[in-house]
Amino acid sequence: MNGRVSVVKCDSYAEEEVQTAVSKSISLVGGLNSIIGVGDKVLVKPNLLSAMSPDRHVTTHPSVVKAVVEEVKSVGASPIIGDTPGGPVTRKILDRLYGRTGMTRVAEETGAGLNYDTENMQIAFPEGKLIKRLDVMAVLAEVDHVITLPKMKTHLFTQFTGATKILFGVIPGLAKPAYHLKFHDVMEFSDMLLDLLEYVRPSLSLMDGIVGLEGDGPGASGTPKEAGVILAGRDSVALDVVAASIAGMNPADVPVLKRAIERGMVSGKLSDVGVVGESIDSVKTSFKQPSHRMGLVGRLMSSSLMRKVMLKNMAPYPDSNSKCVRCGVCAQNCPAHAITMGDRARMDLEKCIRCYCCHELCPHSAVDLRNTLIGRMLSRT
Known about the structure:
- By secondary structure, this protein is α/β, with parallel strands linked by helices.
- The protein folds into two domains: about 5-285, Rossmann fold (3-Layer(aba) Sandwich); about 290-380, 2-Layer Sandwich (Alpha-Beta Plaits), CATH 3.30.70.20.
- It has helices spanning about 15-30, 60-75, 90-100, 105-110, 175-180, 185-200, 235-245, 255-260, 280-285, 295-300, 305-315, 330-335, 355-360, 375-380; strands spanning about 5-10, 40-45, 80, 115, 120-125, 135, 145-150, 150-155, 160, 205-215, 220-235, 275, 315-320, 340, 345, 365-370.
- Strands 1, 2, 3, 4, 7, 8, 9, 10, 11 and 12 form a ten-stranded mixed sheet that branches. Strands 5-6 form a two-stranded antiparallel sheet.
- The relative contact order is 0.15.
Protein backbone atom coordinates (compact mmCIF):
# COMPACT_ATOMS: atom_id res chain seq x y z
CA MET A 1 0.00 0.00 0.00
CA ASN A 2 1.01 3.63 -0.49
CA GLY A 3 2.08 4.79 2.99
CA ARG A 4 2.12 8.50 2.18
CA VAL A 5 -0.15 10.62 4.41
CA SER A 6 -0.95 14.28 3.83
CA VAL A 7 -1.49 16.79 6.63
CA VAL A 8 -3.25 20.03 5.66
CA LYS A 9 -4.35 22.80 8.01
CA CYS A 10 -8.02 23.77 7.96
CA ASP A 11 -9.49 25.85 10.77
CA SER A 12 -13.17 26.05 9.87
CA TYR A 13 -16.01 24.24 8.12
CA ALA A 14 -16.58 27.08 5.66
CA GLU A 15 -17.19 25.24 2.39
CA GLU A 16 -14.63 27.11 0.31
CA GLU A 17 -11.89 26.61 2.90
CA VAL A 18 -12.73 22.92 3.28
CA GLN A 19 -12.81 22.36 -0.48
CA THR A 20 -9.35 23.91 -0.83
CA ALA A 21 -7.94 21.80 2.01
CA VAL A 22 -9.52 18.59 0.75
CA SER A 23 -8.28 19.16 -2.81
CA LYS A 24 -4.76 19.84 -1.55
CA SER A 25 -4.72 16.83 0.76
CA ILE A 26 -5.82 14.47 -2.01
CA SER A 27 -3.38 15.99 -4.49
CA LEU A 28 -0.49 15.48 -2.07
CA VAL A 29 -1.09 11.72 -2.00
CA GLY A 30 -1.30 11.35 -5.77
CA GLY A 31 -4.73 12.66 -6.73
CA LEU A 32 -7.97 10.77 -7.39
CA ASN A 33 -7.36 10.39 -11.11
CA SER A 34 -4.49 8.01 -10.29
CA ILE A 35 -6.94 5.76 -8.42
CA ILE A 36 -10.43 6.19 -9.87
CA GLY A 37 -11.52 5.97 -13.48
CA VAL A 38 -14.24 7.65 -15.50
CA GLY A 39 -17.58 5.98 -14.88
CA ASP A 40 -16.47 4.19 -11.71
CA LYS A 41 -18.98 3.90 -8.88
CA VAL A 42 -17.60 5.13 -5.57
CA LEU A 43 -19.03 4.58 -2.09
CA VAL A 44 -18.23 7.65 -0.01
CA LYS A 45 -18.49 6.39 3.56
CA PRO A 46 -18.53 9.02 6.31
CA ASN A 47 -18.74 8.27 10.03
CA LEU A 48 -22.49 8.50 10.68
CA LEU A 49 -22.54 6.98 14.14
CA SER A 50 -26.02 8.28 14.91
CA ALA A 51 -28.58 10.85 13.82
CA MET A 52 -26.96 13.93 15.35
CA SER A 53 -26.51 17.39 13.89
CA PRO A 54 -23.06 18.37 12.60
CA ASP A 55 -22.52 20.87 15.42
CA ARG A 56 -22.26 17.96 17.87
CA HIS A 57 -19.06 16.88 16.07
CA VAL A 58 -19.93 13.19 16.45
CA THR A 59 -20.24 12.58 12.70
CA THR A 60 -18.17 13.57 9.67
CA HIS A 61 -19.06 17.15 8.80
CA PRO A 62 -21.15 17.62 5.64
CA SER A 63 -18.71 20.24 4.31
CA VAL A 64 -16.01 17.56 4.23
CA VAL A 65 -18.32 15.02 2.63
CA LYS A 66 -19.42 17.56 0.02
CA ALA A 67 -15.84 18.46 -0.85
CA VAL A 68 -14.90 14.79 -1.37
CA VAL A 69 -18.02 14.15 -3.45
CA GLU A 70 -17.06 17.07 -5.70
CA GLU A 71 -13.56 15.62 -6.08
CA VAL A 72 -15.02 12.25 -7.09
CA LYS A 73 -17.29 13.90 -9.64
CA SER A 74 -14.38 15.90 -11.05
CA VAL A 75 -12.69 12.71 -12.29
CA GLY A 76 -15.88 11.51 -13.97
CA ALA A 77 -16.91 8.98 -11.33
CA SER A 78 -20.32 8.49 -9.68
CA PRO A 79 -20.40 8.95 -5.89
CA ILE A 80 -22.93 7.41 -3.52
CA ILE A 81 -22.95 8.37 0.16
CA GLY A 82 -23.70 5.65 2.68
CA ASP A 83 -23.14 4.20 6.13
CA THR A 84 -24.85 1.72 8.45
CA PRO A 85 -25.58 2.84 12.03
CA GLY A 86 -26.12 0.41 14.88
CA GLY A 87 -29.48 -1.28 15.33
CA PRO A 88 -32.21 -1.98 12.79
CA VAL A 89 -31.81 -0.21 9.45
CA THR A 90 -34.87 0.77 7.43
CA ARG A 91 -35.46 3.48 4.84
CA LYS A 92 -37.18 5.59 7.50
CA ILE A 93 -34.19 5.25 9.85
CA LEU A 94 -31.77 6.09 7.04
CA ASP A 95 -33.86 9.11 6.04
CA ARG A 96 -33.60 10.44 9.58
CA LEU A 97 -29.87 9.66 9.76
CA TYR A 98 -29.07 11.34 6.45
CA GLY A 99 -31.27 14.32 7.24
CA ARG A 100 -29.93 15.00 10.73
CA THR A 101 -26.28 14.61 9.75
CA GLY A 102 -26.52 16.89 6.70
CA MET A 103 -26.05 14.16 4.10
CA THR A 104 -29.42 14.78 2.45
CA ARG A 105 -28.43 18.37 1.78
CA VAL A 106 -25.07 17.27 0.38
CA ALA A 107 -26.80 14.85 -1.98
CA GLU A 108 -29.26 17.53 -3.11
CA GLU A 109 -26.52 20.09 -3.75
CA THR A 110 -24.11 17.75 -5.54
CA GLY A 111 -26.34 15.21 -7.25
CA ALA A 112 -24.68 12.35 -5.36
CA GLY A 113 -26.73 9.31 -4.50
CA LEU A 114 -27.66 8.18 -1.00
CA ASN A 115 -27.47 4.48 -0.22
CA TYR A 116 -30.83 3.04 0.79
CA ASP A 117 -29.94 -0.57 0.04
CA THR A 118 -30.55 -2.29 3.39
CA GLU A 119 -29.63 -5.75 2.09
CA ASN A 120 -26.62 -7.56 3.53
CA MET A 121 -24.35 -10.24 2.16
CA GLN A 122 -22.14 -12.85 3.74
CA ILE A 123 -18.83 -13.35 2.02
CA ALA A 124 -16.06 -15.90 2.44
CA PHE A 125 -12.72 -14.38 3.38
CA PRO A 126 -10.20 -17.19 3.89
CA GLU A 127 -7.37 -14.64 4.05
CA GLY A 128 -8.69 -13.29 7.35
CA LYS A 129 -6.50 -13.85 10.38
CA LEU A 130 -9.44 -14.01 12.80
CA ILE A 131 -12.60 -14.13 10.71
CA LYS A 132 -13.09 -16.26 7.62
CA ARG A 133 -16.64 -15.12 6.84
CA LEU A 134 -17.91 -11.54 6.95
CA ASP A 135 -21.34 -9.94 7.06
CA VAL A 136 -21.21 -6.68 5.09
CA MET A 137 -23.40 -4.10 3.35
CA ALA A 138 -24.60 -5.37 -0.02
CA VAL A 139 -23.71 -2.05 -1.64
CA LEU A 140 -20.03 -3.04 -1.46
CA ALA A 141 -20.65 -5.47 -4.32
CA GLU A 142 -22.06 -2.70 -6.47
CA VAL A 143 -19.19 -0.19 -6.28
CA ASP A 144 -15.70 -0.08 -7.72
CA HIS A 145 -14.12 1.92 -4.92
CA VAL A 146 -14.64 2.85 -1.28
CA ILE A 147 -13.51 6.19 0.14
CA THR A 148 -13.78 6.42 3.92
CA LEU A 149 -14.21 9.73 5.73
CA PRO A 150 -13.44 9.09 9.41
CA LYS A 151 -13.73 11.62 12.21
CA MET A 152 -10.81 12.14 14.59
CA LYS A 153 -12.21 10.90 17.91
CA THR A 154 -11.32 9.10 21.10
CA HIS A 155 -13.25 5.92 21.81
CA LEU A 156 -14.13 4.33 25.13
CA PHE A 157 -13.58 0.77 23.91
CA THR A 158 -10.86 1.08 21.25
CA GLN A 159 -9.23 4.28 22.64
CA PHE A 160 -9.12 5.90 19.21
CA THR A 161 -11.41 5.73 16.19
CA GLY A 162 -10.17 6.69 12.76
CA ALA A 163 -9.58 5.21 9.32
CA THR A 164 -9.50 1.61 10.56
CA LYS A 165 -12.32 1.64 13.10
CA ILE A 166 -14.69 3.37 10.64
CA LEU A 167 -14.83 0.12 8.68
CA PHE A 168 -16.98 -1.42 11.41
CA GLY A 169 -19.67 0.66 9.72
CA VAL A 170 -19.82 -1.79 6.78
CA ILE A 171 -21.11 -4.45 9.19
CA PRO A 172 -24.95 -4.44 9.05
CA GLY A 173 -26.59 -2.68 11.97
CA LEU A 174 -28.26 -5.75 13.46
CA ALA A 175 -25.08 -7.83 13.06
CA LYS A 176 -22.89 -5.37 14.98
CA PRO A 177 -23.95 -6.62 18.45
CA ALA A 178 -22.97 -10.18 17.54
CA TYR A 179 -19.49 -9.01 16.53
CA HIS A 180 -19.14 -7.08 19.79
CA LEU A 181 -20.24 -10.11 21.77
CA LYS A 182 -17.92 -12.50 19.93
CA PHE A 183 -14.93 -10.15 19.99
CA HIS A 184 -15.44 -8.43 23.34
CA ASP A 185 -11.71 -8.46 24.03
CA VAL A 186 -10.33 -5.25 22.56
CA MET A 187 -7.35 -6.97 20.92
CA GLU A 188 -9.56 -9.57 19.24
CA PHE A 189 -11.86 -6.75 18.15
CA SER A 190 -8.81 -5.00 16.69
CA ASP A 191 -7.86 -8.11 14.75
CA MET A 192 -11.39 -8.25 13.37
CA LEU A 193 -11.13 -4.61 12.25
CA LEU A 194 -7.85 -5.32 10.48
CA ASP A 195 -9.41 -8.30 8.69
CA LEU A 196 -12.23 -5.99 7.60
CA LEU A 197 -9.66 -3.50 6.35
CA GLU A 198 -7.91 -6.16 4.29
CA TYR A 199 -11.23 -7.17 2.74
CA VAL A 200 -12.61 -3.69 1.97
CA ARG A 201 -9.24 -2.11 1.03
CA PRO A 202 -10.44 1.51 0.74
CA SER A 203 -8.97 3.35 -2.22
CA LEU A 204 -8.58 6.46 -0.07
CA SER A 205 -9.22 7.60 3.48
CA LEU A 206 -9.68 11.28 4.31
CA MET A 207 -10.06 12.29 7.95
CA ASP A 208 -12.11 15.17 9.31
CA GLY A 209 -9.79 16.47 12.01
CA ILE A 210 -11.02 20.06 11.93
CA VAL A 211 -13.00 19.51 15.13
CA GLY A 212 -12.83 16.06 16.67
CA LEU A 213 -13.96 14.56 19.95
CA GLU A 214 -11.88 13.94 23.05
CA GLY A 215 -12.63 12.33 26.39
CA ASP A 216 -15.45 9.81 26.51
CA GLY A 217 -16.07 9.60 22.77
CA PRO A 218 -17.10 8.53 20.22
CA GLY A 219 -20.68 9.64 20.87
CA ALA A 220 -22.64 12.33 22.65
CA SER A 221 -20.56 12.11 25.85
CA GLY A 222 -17.37 13.15 24.06
CA THR A 223 -16.12 16.74 24.15
CA PRO A 224 -15.46 18.70 20.91
CA LYS A 225 -11.75 19.34 20.37
CA GLU A 226 -10.31 21.63 17.72
CA ALA A 227 -7.42 20.04 15.86
CA GLY A 228 -7.59 22.09 12.65
CA VAL A 229 -6.45 19.45 10.15
CA ILE A 230 -7.52 17.37 7.18
CA LEU A 231 -5.55 14.15 6.69
CA ALA A 232 -5.56 11.88 3.64
CA GLY A 233 -3.87 8.68 2.59
CA ARG A 234 -4.31 5.41 0.73
CA ASP A 235 -3.04 3.35 3.67
CA SER A 236 -5.65 3.52 6.43
CA VAL A 237 -3.33 2.20 9.14
CA ALA A 238 -0.57 4.67 8.27
CA LEU A 239 -3.14 7.47 8.37
CA ASP A 240 -4.20 6.35 11.86
CA VAL A 241 -0.57 6.35 13.00
CA VAL A 242 -0.31 10.00 11.94
CA ALA A 243 -3.72 10.94 13.38
CA ALA A 244 -3.02 9.31 16.75
CA SER A 245 0.33 11.10 16.91
CA ILE A 246 -1.31 14.46 16.17
CA ALA A 247 -3.83 13.72 18.96
CA GLY A 248 -0.95 13.23 21.39
CA MET A 249 -1.11 9.44 21.61
CA ASN A 250 1.63 6.87 21.24
CA PRO A 251 0.44 4.81 18.24
CA ALA A 252 1.83 1.62 19.80
CA ASP A 253 -0.55 2.12 22.75
CA VAL A 254 -3.67 2.24 20.56
CA PRO A 255 -5.01 -1.35 20.43
CA VAL A 256 -5.73 -1.57 16.71
CA LEU A 257 -2.36 -0.02 15.84
CA LYS A 258 -0.57 -2.24 18.33
CA ARG A 259 -2.12 -5.25 16.62
CA ALA A 260 -1.30 -3.85 13.15
CA ILE A 261 2.33 -3.52 14.23
CA GLU A 262 2.33 -7.14 15.42
CA ARG A 263 0.85 -8.23 12.08
CA GLY A 264 3.56 -6.36 10.16
CA MET A 265 1.10 -3.98 8.50
CA VAL A 266 2.97 -0.92 9.77
CA SER A 267 6.02 -0.25 11.93
CA GLY A 268 4.20 2.26 14.12
CA LYS A 269 7.02 4.75 13.70
CA LEU A 270 6.26 8.15 12.23
CA SER A 271 9.65 8.10 10.53
CA ASP A 272 8.44 5.20 8.39
CA VAL A 273 5.36 7.10 7.18
CA GLY A 274 5.78 9.53 4.29
CA VAL A 275 4.18 12.59 5.87
CA VAL A 276 3.63 15.37 3.32
CA GLY A 277 2.23 18.87 3.77
CA GLU A 278 2.45 20.21 7.31
CA SER A 279 4.82 18.66 9.81
CA ILE A 280 3.37 16.69 12.72
CA ASP A 281 4.97 19.05 15.24
CA SER A 282 3.28 22.08 13.68
CA VAL A 283 -0.22 20.67 14.25
CA LYS A 284 0.26 18.38 17.23
CA THR A 285 -2.23 18.74 20.05
CA SER A 286 -3.34 16.65 23.03
CA PHE A 287 -6.68 14.86 23.16
CA LYS A 288 -7.99 14.02 26.63
CA GLN A 289 -8.18 10.24 26.87
CA PRO A 290 -11.33 8.27 27.73
CA SER A 291 -11.85 8.20 31.49
CA HIS A 292 -11.28 4.47 31.86
CA ARG A 293 -7.93 4.71 30.04
CA MET A 294 -6.46 6.94 32.74
CA GLY A 295 -4.43 5.66 35.67
CA LEU A 296 -3.27 2.12 36.45
CA VAL A 297 -6.61 0.56 35.51
CA GLY A 298 -6.32 1.83 31.97
CA ARG A 299 -2.78 0.57 31.61
CA LEU A 300 -3.68 -2.89 32.94
CA MET A 301 -6.82 -3.08 30.78
CA SER A 302 -4.69 -2.75 27.63
CA SER A 303 -3.48 -6.30 28.33
CA SER A 304 -5.82 -8.98 26.96
CA LEU A 305 -5.18 -11.35 29.86
CA MET A 306 -5.63 -8.68 32.51
CA ARG A 307 -8.74 -7.40 30.75
CA LYS A 308 -10.37 -10.81 31.08
CA VAL A 309 -9.38 -11.13 34.73
CA MET A 310 -10.39 -7.60 35.70
CA LEU A 311 -13.45 -7.02 33.52
CA LYS A 312 -16.12 -7.52 36.15
CA ASN A 313 -14.26 -6.21 39.20
CA MET A 314 -12.31 -3.20 38.02
CA ALA A 315 -13.56 -2.00 34.62
CA PRO A 316 -15.98 0.96 34.71
CA TYR A 317 -19.60 -0.09 34.40
CA PRO A 318 -22.43 1.68 32.53
CA ASP A 319 -25.33 3.20 34.42
CA SER A 320 -28.20 5.32 33.15
CA ASN A 321 -28.75 8.79 34.56
CA SER A 322 -31.64 11.25 34.87
CA LYS A 323 -31.34 12.27 31.18
CA CYS A 324 -32.75 8.87 30.15
CA VAL A 325 -35.95 9.23 28.10
CA ARG A 326 -36.49 5.46 27.70
CA CYS A 327 -35.94 5.60 23.92
CA GLY A 328 -34.55 2.06 23.98
CA VAL A 329 -31.52 2.66 21.72
CA CYS A 330 -29.20 1.19 24.35
CA ALA A 331 -31.28 -1.98 24.82
CA GLN A 332 -31.66 -2.50 21.06
CA ASN A 333 -27.90 -2.37 20.55
CA CYS A 334 -26.67 -4.26 23.62
CA PRO A 335 -24.84 -7.36 22.29
CA ALA A 336 -25.16 -9.15 25.65
CA HIS A 337 -28.89 -8.37 26.08
CA ALA A 338 -27.98 -6.91 29.44
CA ILE A 339 -30.34 -3.91 29.39
CA THR A 340 -34.04 -3.76 30.23
CA MET A 341 -36.28 -0.72 30.17
CA GLY A 342 -38.17 0.29 33.32
CA ASP A 343 -38.49 3.79 34.64
CA ARG A 344 -35.12 4.17 32.93
CA ALA A 345 -32.58 1.85 31.34
CA ARG A 346 -31.38 -0.81 33.77
CA MET A 347 -28.06 -2.61 33.20
CA ASP A 348 -27.50 -6.20 34.37
CA LEU A 349 -23.84 -6.00 35.33
CA GLU A 350 -23.46 -9.78 35.48
CA LYS A 351 -24.31 -10.00 31.78
CA CYS A 352 -22.55 -6.75 30.77
CA ILE A 353 -19.36 -7.29 28.72
CA ARG A 354 -18.15 -3.67 29.07
CA CYS A 355 -18.21 -2.96 25.34
CA TYR A 356 -19.84 0.44 26.11
CA CYS A 357 -22.12 0.35 23.05
CA CYS A 358 -24.88 1.80 25.24
CA HIS A 359 -22.71 4.79 26.15
CA GLU A 360 -21.52 5.20 22.57
CA LEU A 361 -24.93 5.15 20.91
CA CYS A 362 -27.10 6.98 23.46
CA PRO A 363 -28.24 10.21 21.75
CA HIS A 364 -29.06 11.90 25.07
CA SER A 365 -25.80 11.42 27.04
CA ALA A 366 -27.91 9.39 29.45
CA VAL A 367 -25.38 6.63 30.13
CA ASP A 368 -22.56 7.32 32.57
CA LEU A 369 -19.53 5.15 33.23
CA ARG A 370 -18.93 4.57 36.92
CA ASN A 371 -15.76 3.21 38.47
CA THR A 372 -15.84 0.34 40.92
CA LEU A 373 -14.32 0.97 44.35
CA ILE A 374 -11.10 -0.80 43.34
CA GLY A 375 -11.11 1.06 40.05
CA ARG A 376 -11.44 4.43 41.80
CA MET A 377 -8.50 3.61 44.04
CA LEU A 378 -6.24 2.45 41.22
CA SER A 379 -7.20 5.29 38.86
CA ARG A 380 -5.51 7.68 41.26
CA THR A 381 -2.18 5.90 40.94
